[in-house]
Amino acid sequence: MKAIRIHEKGAIDNIQTEDIPKPNINPNQVLVKVKACGINPVDWKSTIYGYFQMPYTLGTDISGVIEAVGSEVTEYKVGDQVIGSLEWATQGAFAEYVATEPKYLAPKPKNLNFEEAAAVPLVSLTAWQGVFDKLNLQKGQKILVQAAAGGVGLFAIQFAKWKGAEVIGIASQKNESFLKSFGVDGIIDYKTTDFSKISPDFDAVFDSMASSELTIPLLKKGGSYVSITAKPSEELTAKHHVTASNFLFHSNNKQLKTIVDLIEQDQIKVFLDKQFALTEAKAALKYQHEGHSKGKNVLVV
Ligand SMILES: NC(=O)c1ccc[n+]([C@@H]2O[C@H](COP(=O)([O-])OP(=O)(O)OC[C@H]3O[C@@H](n4cnc5c(N)ncnc54)[C@H](OP(=O)(O)O)[C@@H]3O)[C@@H](O)[C@H]2O)c1
Questions:
Q1: Dihedral sign computed on CA atoms, order 245, 248, 250, 256
Q2: CA of 39 to the centre of ligand 1 (A)
Q3: Is residue 12 assigned to a domain?
Q4: 256 domain residue, yes or no
Q5: DSSP category for residue 55
Q6: pLDDT of residue 262
Q7: Whose CA is nearest to atom 11 of ligand 1?
């Protein structure tokens, strides 16, 4: 089967398409015929900085169809359509077939095609865990979402609206009407705004751009800040009397099933920016690396 692999960190150009054996499954695994893969910043970051043990097959997010089921698996049968974010340490999504455990999977949303469905797992789980598990956002609160038009941001603003919060997104002006169509109440244009002139009236900040110096001062006293990149300084959080943390998402099939339900109820929408063939992974990662995509990019297998 074809797989997108890397043997040496350092550059996106180091990835290559290889022919490797189709995986065998253990009794507790399923074999998924992959239809599409979601692309995330970690895919290009790990090729450059080497987060995982080399060599490996890149990628975490898949959509596909179950082709074989291990003898101990009760949750799925051959032919089921699924999505999932694979085991973090081993990655392995950018391939024609994937062997994985049911705990990494959820049923594919029935109202999405495979390409749209592959865009859901990692970013939606990150947004869910940030907005609810970390910020504990409540109805009526006011939240500021950084990089609102990006992969994580677009889910974070929708989850916050679904909860009944007032949502302001940080984005460039060109994305204002796009973001309003996803429910935001307003935007702050990061390219032209002097953040020091904004009054501190947010209950929560969801930060995906390591912008704590800009965004923590916008919180009310007692507000909550969460980052999905750098940890904010203790000095800064103490100065503004807020709580702050950062975290790495984890695959969670219970949460993913809840998100799938919301998508099927049309409460949450998915937006695809670009689609690339699996063998165009290098170009796809370079596009994601530019850092200005809208919603998600996917590989079509
Ligand atoms: N901790 C975790 O578990 C976790 C999980 C997922 C992602 N992450 C990290 O979170 C970050 C965001 O991920 P993502 O998938 O949402 O990325 P993404 O889709 O690539 O983000 C693209 C968006 O970022 C916006 N943007 C770029 N520069 C900006 C700036 N200076 N200020 C505000 N917005 C800016 C772009 O808007 P314009 O086009 O207007 O510039 C675009 O809408 C990445 O660093 C990723 O590695 C961490």
A1: positive
A2: 12
A3: yes
A4: no
A5: S
A6: 98
A7: 208
Angle at 18 between CA 98 and CA 280, to 5 degrees: 85
Within 6 Å (CB) of ligand 1, which residues are found?
Answer: 40-42, 45, 122-123, 126, 146-147, 149-153, 170-172, 175, 190, 208-209, 228-229, 248-249, 288, 291-294
| Domain count along the chain | 2
pLDDT band at 301 (very low <50, low <70, confident <90, very high): very high
Closest ligand 1 atom to residue 227 Cα is 1
C-alpha 151 to ligand 1 mean position (Å): 7
In a domain, 265, yes or no: no
CATH code of residue 202: 3.40.50.720
State pTM to two decimals: 0.98
Q: What is the CATH number of the domain that holds 107?
A: 3.90.180.10
Ligand 1 centre distance from Cα of residue 41 (Å): 8
Angle at 284 between CA 113 and CA 144, to 5 degrees: 75
Q: What is the pLDDT of residues 133-146, one digit of tens each?
A: 999 999 999 999 99
For 201, the domain range is 123-246
Altogether, the residues listed in the chain come to a count of: 301
One domain, residues 281 and 228: no
56-57 and 2-6 beta bridge pairing = antiparallel
Q: What is the pLDDT of residue 140?
A: 98
Tens-digit pLDDT profile for residues 149-170: 999 999 999 999 999 999 999 9
